[in-house]
Amino acid sequence: MIKDIISGSYSLLLHIVLLGLFVVGMESQSTPHFIAKPKVDIVQATVMDESQVLEEMARLKDYEDKKLQQEKDRQAKVDEKLEETQKELARKEREFLDQQERAKIEQQQRELKAKQEQEQIQKLEQERKLEDKKRVKAEQERMAAEELKQKADQKRREAEEKQRLAEADRKAEEQRQRDAEAKAQQAEADEKKRLAKIEQDRKKAEVLKKKKEAELRDAEAKKQIQESLEAEFAKEAQERETTRVAGIVDIVVLQIKQKVKRNWNRPSSAAGLQTTIHVKLMPGGDVKQVTIIKSSGNAIFDRSVETAVYKAAPLPQPKDPKAAAELRDFQFVFKPE
Questions:
Q1: Can you say whether residue 32 is alpha, beta or left, with left for phi > 0 and alpha for psi between -120 and 50 degrees?
Q2: H helix and E strand count, the chain
Q3: Closest by alpha carbon to 129, among 141, 118, 121, 117?
Q4: Residue 316: exposed, middle, or buried by beta-carbon count in 10 A (0-12, 13-18, 19+)?
């Protein structure tokens, strides 16, 4: 492909050169040449020598002939160069055509070779497939023969196994009969032993039953005693715990009363009065709610006590969690004296 491009480029270049030479030749022929005539002194004379005129004419003719011959020689060289260029161009064109023809022939040869190779590949593939079929058929025939052999061997083994099993069954039947006789004898002896053992076990079970009934009665009595003792202990512990918590609560309620009194503004008419207060606290002793559940009969006194409870917050709280829980919601009687 690259050779074809080079050859085509060279041919184009020769055409351009040839065209340039042809244009130069045409310009040379068409361009008029002005022949410089020799300078002739004009002689102011009435009569001119005839020999001098002829001599001058001859000299001018020689000069013109010489210039014409030079032009012919130059044109001959241009024609010769043009002819050589045309020949070279024709040669290059022949080479280019020859190269194209050779390339075409080579392409045809390559295509023919490729076709032959493809045909050869197809032929080999067909041969391979044929061989594969033969090999598969041979393998199938071998497997069929092997299968027939295996079936024959299987039948032979089955016949031998059947005979062996029949012999084994006969011997087993004889053994079963012997075993049945021995088993019957053994069963009779075992039955006697079983009945004797049943009677013995019944007597043992009766003794054990009486023993277990006595043990259960003792265990039940012990359990009742234990439960009674545990209930008594629990009751005593609960009473002790209740007393302990109540003691802590009484002490803290007394502290609360004292703090409320310290924050109480005594009204003028408080003598001999008392009121029962219900208090709800938040964790930490802050007062959540104060309610008069039993009035003193004097609203001013009641409100002063209620205000004192709020002012005393946070109220004292015990460290004991049970006592603290009791004092989340409690009541007490407030009286000044």
A1: beta
A2: 4, 3
A3: 121
A4: middle
Q: Between residues 11 and 83, which one has the greater pLDDT? A: 83
Token output for 226: 């234990």
Quote the CA–CA distance of 312 and 305 in Å, as a whole number: 11
Q: Does 19 have pLDDT greater than 70? A: no
Q: How confident is the model at residue 31 (pLDDT cuts 50, 70, 90)?
A: very low
The token pair that represents 188 in the structure block: 């009779």
**From residue 298, how far is each of 22, 109, 188, 333 by CA, in Å?**
149, 137, 107, 15
Asked whether 78 and 24 are in contact (CB, 8 A), the reply is: yes
Residue 233: pLDDT band (50, 70, 90) is confident
Residues in Cβ contact with 272 at an 8 Å cutoff, skipping those fewer than 6 apart: 337
Which residues sit opposite 334 in a β-bridge?
Answer: 275
Give Cβ neighbours of residue 302 (< 8 Å, ≥ 6 apart): 275, 292, 295, 296
Cα 336 to the center of its chain, rounded Å: 82
Q: List, in sequence order, every beta strand (DSSP E) within the chain.
A: 275-281, 287-294, 329-334
pLDDT band, very low/low/confident/very high, at 222 (cuts 50, 70, 90):
confident
pTM of the full predicted structure? Answer: 0.35
Helical H segments across the chain, by residue range:
2-30, 50-262, 299-311, 321-326
Residues 84, 76 contacting (CB under 8 angstroms): no
Distance of alpha carbon 46 from alpha carbon 318, whole angstroms? 175
Give pLDDT tens digits for 143-182. Answer: 987 898 999 889 999 989 998 998 988 998 889 889 878 8
Residues whose CB falls within 8 Å of the CB of residue 195, separated by 6 or more in sequence, listed in order: none
Residues in CB range of 89: below 8 A, 6 or more apart: 11, 14, 15, 18
Q: What residue type is 230 in one-letter code?
A: E
Give the C-alpha separation, 88 to 82, whole Å. 10
Fold exhibited by the domain 263-334? 3.30.1150
pLDDT at 247 over 60: yes
